[in-house]
Amino acid sequence: MFASLKTIDSAFQQVKTLALIFIIAVLLLAGTIAYFAFQSTNAAANRIYVLEGGQLLTAGAQDARANRPVEARSHVTRFHELFFSLDPDQKAIDSNVNKALYLADNSAKKQYENFKEKGFYNDLIAANISLGMTVDSVVISNSRPLTARCYGHQRVIRATSVTNRDFISVCSLRDVTRSENNPHGFLMENWRVLQNKDLNTLPR
């Protein structure tokens, strides 16, 4: 009789163990399914579908702050290309400079007015001189407010020669509302040129 009870007790323990293992396995499976379902839902929420030319395209969504340093470099580059890439045409000069002034504060406007007072733009037009600006790099700080240091070089193209100039400027960056005139949503503040010196002059 005791042997029979032992057998029943042993069988009960085995059934209990198997049931416990089964429950744990089910819980693990449910947790795994829930995890992958959450990951899939999260990925779907960050995906945007765009219909273009009859084709369905996907575009990923991400935190806008992740791209701010890239946008800051593009903003500073765009300003310098507009402000310093000039041809001997008053309308072209006005168009470029006006676009550039939307990207910076009064420090850029003061520099523009200084150039005008000194007859800089009139000299360009009279002598048929073209200016070209190439930005080599823009270094953005990790601190707040953001600061930017721009390294580039200028080409001064005259009828008989080309002068290459080394260029460095610095400014701080403030977040502002994005617009058509300022798509990156930055405003350059306290902009100043640290270096703008001739490197060489080559005959044409």
Give me the secondary-structure topology:
Layout: H1 2-45, E1 47-52, E2 55-60, H2 68-84, H3 90-101, H4 106-117, H5 120-126, E3 130-140, E4 146-157, E5 161-175, E6 186-203
Antiparallel strand pairs: 1-2, 3-4, 4-5, 5-6
Structural notes for this entry:
With 204 residues, this protein is an alpha+beta fold. Helices cover 45% and strands 33% of the residues. The protein has helices at 2-45, 68-84, 90-101, 106-117, 120-126, and strands at 47-52, 55-60, 130-140, 146-157, 161-175, 186-203. It has a four-stranded antiparallel β-sheet with strand order 3-4-5-6, covered by helices on one side. It has a two-stranded antiparallel ribbon with strand order 1-2. α2 (68-84) runs antiparallel to α3 (90-101). The longest helix has 44 residues, at 2-45. The termini are far apart. The model has no long low-confidence stretch (mean pLDDT 86).
